[in-house]
Amino acid sequence: MMINYDHWISGKATAPSSGAFIDSTSPVDGRLVARIASGTESDVACAVAAAHDAGHAWCERRPMERGQLLMALGRAIRERADRFIELESAETGKPAWQAELEVEGAAQYCEFLRRARQHRARQCPRRRSRDPCIHPA
């Protein structure tokens, strides 16, 4: 099943301003896997501004809440693992078993970030003052 993927800006799918898409094909058999939004300079500027705003919103959240969101992201990756595995395998030509390991690795990375943050806060309380979310650069 071929899908068009828009940009993801400000928490929602956003069509490319040019209307253009890039074809993503399977290296195995050349079939069309997906069409990916082709960004313009304007699209990039919107995405950068949205990311900047999201960074400030992220920093306003309490560390515990950020950790809970990272854990939720890991769970969401696992809940959609079949789709991610299918897409990764189709786009890269990797065997499904390898794509499955990478998708699981992404979920585990979210959990790692949460735990690393908690460990850092317990072990190095003075370093918290250098946290970019406390004192943005």
Structural notes for this entry:
- With 137 residues, the protein is an alpha+beta fold.
- It has a three-stranded mixed sheet, with helices on one face. Strands 2-3 form a two-stranded antiparallel sheet.
- Helices cover 56% and strands 15% of the residues.
- It starts with a strand and ends in a 14-residue tail after the last helix.
- The protein has four helices and five strands, in the order βββββαααα.
- It has helices spanning 41-60, 63-79, 81-92, 96-123; strands spanning 3-5, 7-9, 12-14, 21-25, 32-37.
- Helix 3 crosses helix 4 (96-123).
- The protein is flat, with a radius of gyration of 18 Å.
Outline the secondary-structure elements.
Blueprint: E1 3-5, E2 7-9, E3 12-14, E4 21-25, E5 32-37, H1 41-60, H2 63-79, H3 81-92, H4 96-123
Parallel strand pairs: 1-5
Antiparallel strand pairs: 2-3, 4-5
